[in-house]
Amino acid sequence: MRDIRRKVRRTQTIVPFGVGGIIDLRGESFVAADTRSWARTAEPVDSPRLAAKLRVDGFRSAPVIPAGKAAYTSRSGPTYVRFPKWLFCPVCRAMAFWRTSLEEKDRVPTCGRCPSRPKLAPMRFIQVCRAGHLADINWFRWAHSASEGHDQRQCRSGRLRFLATPDSSGLEALHVVCETCHARRDLAGISYKDVLRKLGMNCRGTHPWQDDTDEPDPCEEAPQAVQRGAANVYFPVVHSAIDIPAPSSPSEHDPATQAVVNSSFWLNYLSHYGSPIADHFRAIIAAESGVSEEFVEAIGRRTSDRGAPSSPFGSDEHLSIAEWAAFSNPESVPASKTFSVRRTRLDIDGTAPPSMLELNRRVASVVVADRVREVRALEGFSRYEPHSGDNDEGGRLVSVDTARRAKWLPAVETYGEGIFVSLDEERLRAWERLEPVRLWTRRIERDLDASFKVDRLRDKSGPVLLPRFVMLHTLAHHFIRQLSYDSGYNAASLRERVYARSHPTESTYPPQTGVFIYTAAGDTEGTLGGLVRQGRPPYLAETLIRLLESAQWCSQDPLCADSTGRSLANLNRAACHACTLLPETCCEIDNSLLDRTLLIGDSEVPGFFQEVLRAAMMESAEAAEGP
Q1: Rounded CA gap, 131 and 220, in Å?
Q2: DSSP classification of residue 118
Q3: What is the DSSP letter of 113?
Q4: How far apart are CA 170 and CA 187, in angstroms?
Q5: Could you read off the pLDDT of 25-66 as tens digits, one per residue?
Q6: Phi and psi torsions of 326, nearest 5°
Q7: What tens digit of pLDDT does each residue of 296-310 get?
Q8: CA 422/CA 364 separation, integer angstroms
Q9: Exposed, middle or buried, 387 (CB in 10 Å: 0-12/13-18/19+)?
Q10: Which contiguous run of DSSP H or E holds residue 277?
Q11: Ramachandran angles phi, psi of 325, nearest 5°
Q12: What is the Rg, in whole angstroms, of the alpha carbon atoms belonging to the chain?
């Protein structure tokens, strides 16, 4: 007996088949209902930092049905509703509007006209609007919209057929035909703007999973016909946070702590905490007290944050603050079952080649994460256009609970490993002060300000787009590409977190200068250690050199290298699918704000790693020439 049970992985209930998402299963099409349909057996997921940012009580994860036990378990996951309701028979081409009352357990819709009872297929086109509503197209009205005679204009029959003719390979070969009056219209032009509204089809203000008791939303947006599998049908809004334990603070009575706070430079350090001059005071205090600069930084952070009621990391709402503090100072965070990091190094000495020495001058620290826990939560979704934040230029954000304010959000927790690399702040700041670098970044920022994605991207970059953000984001992409060759993971299984956020002028938070590349799996065992191995010497230094060498070549050069604006809203420069862009699951800002020029440089703009690449090319040339 054929098993037709429909199965979805737990991680897929967030992306790509979360609330509002369409899923195809063995020729059937369904849409995920909102969280009201979730069973009470949904498992709680703990992430206080993420819950505080999203202002919800908590998170829940879909229950897992053990392998081979689906027929015996009473637990059920999220509900998926058949959509579109308009189906057609692939044999006789008759169309049928399927209702929930016709559903039978463990049976697929079949044609009642054909003796062989073939399985009905869903219609290809549906309608969406910028307010997030989703519905079937009124095919009866579409077929009669080109009516010629009185009988066709007065026809009220609901018997339709979906015909395909061999006249063309385009949409003009597909026709919706009325069996009674023979009115017909092909699908050519169905996706044109406002074509449905001109035919009297308005948005109904509903979602496919709503029943008769749900009040439709008053919607004045124009419905748009799109293909069921089009990319603009569903834009999920997903937030993620890495689980960071509370930092361990040195005891106030510890002799090393007493030596630090009794230093004659301690008050000067605190008064300038978060400014460049504080780095010099920290180095002097560390040398006088015989402790590391990280130890002094931990005490300074604890002292400066004392009395702040929000969290041990301060009052900034952005999640990157705590994550940067943990990765840049791993000694201050206790190891736990969900977070285990340790400092390592590039291990480059004075006898290394010049390219390695140049690289070592630019890399401040390396931290490998043997185990990290990430929580990803689905806040909502938009349709037709991505949600852009507070402005009205993009699609409207639809909550995961369409009836009331969502008190909890669907989420999934994943475990994995990663590599954190931070760059030298002084060199980075000196590079950012170069006039060509500032002017180049200012042009990108002007395009950012004009983009409908400005609110979402500013949440990541901070109030000012720094050159380091674009450069580090590009570095992260090439890092993932190179690690996919070296570590054994494919690129789609790796993710990035860029720590280059600018802070308000009055902020006392230290500058961010790093990237974290990690992988996460949807189980409690995590991953196999491939990334951690690549983060150890000598592998990491070789990986960084190779990624810089590969970043200078693109099959679309010189068009890519000389670009003054690429991708949506011209938010990229020298970056394309052939050299820099990654699968959507990898990038946290939709493959935006990327530019190889700031990474490796050109004749006009110096790249941060330009000297490293130049030395590596000289070494390659000498090796090719031979003795």
Answers
A1: 9
A2: P
A3: S
A4: 9
A5: 888 999 999 998 887 778 899 998 898 888 888 999 988 776
A6: -75, -40
A7: 877 777 665 443 333
A8: 6
A9: buried
A10: helix 276-289
A11: -60, -35
A12: 29
